Amino acid sequence: MSEPTVRKRKLGFELRRLREAAGLKLDDVLDQTGLPTSKVSRIELARLGIKTDDLNTLLDLYGVDDADKRDALHSLARYGNARGWWQTYRDIISPAYADLISLEADAKDMRTYESALIPGLLQTAAYARATIAAINMTSTDRDVDALVEVRMARQSVLSRPKPLEFWAVVHEAALRPRIKGNPLLMKEQLQKLLDIQRLPHVLIQVLPLDASPHVGMSGPFTVVGFPETSDLGVVLLEHLTSALYVEDPVEVSRYGGAFDVLRAAALPFDASADLIAQLKDNIQ
Length: 284
Description:
Blueprint: H1 6-21, H2 26-33, H3 37-44, H4 52-61, H5 67-78, H6 95-106, E1 109-114, H7 125-135, H8 141-154, E2 165-171, H9 185-196, E3 202-207, E4 221-225, E5 234-238, E6 243-246, H10 249-265, H11 269-281
């Protein structure tokens, strides 16, 4: 059995939450709809997809009348096992990374804090290649090239007809590394940040080195939001060899609050751009 996608887990979590909020047990669902308890349980545990008619039956039973909410849940069900261009690279990208790309394709907005790296959606190919090779220590040159292709392809969400609204808070430390053997690589990367932040849907702020202790010291994170409803957002936490999705609405909200704290502590947009330009001009 394949690993459940974030969409499928999110749908199962939400259906269980709605059932419990309605004060119903699985046996009650069986009594009132005829849907087997084992089937509903497997849907809630993200081990089974759900048909449109069954989803409508459950939403009616749970008293979900809001059209936007229903549309959002139907979208989760419809694309729970969605396949996209990234499936071509399934041999080299993890399920969690595939989930992220899939979510980016549908997301309305993303808010990310990075402490040591330029966010992937804002990277040049050269910067991506250098950092991917450094982080994925055992990857072959061919795998690194493929992963760079994936990262560059992901950036199309910023130029689609309804582009992703992207807000990044980047620690100043991430803007200062020098790539041995290619000192101008970082200059090119900083110029890309200056160019892309001119887009109305891309916001970049820099958290300065002299900032007071802050919530971002616990590590980078990304909050992904969707157009239909705010309570279906997820948070991505990435580590060296794994990634974790936070899907509980209360926890997602806490990360949203953490991002608000970080953006308030960061330099304003114009001052951030000025600092990026200054750091770029200092590279010889």
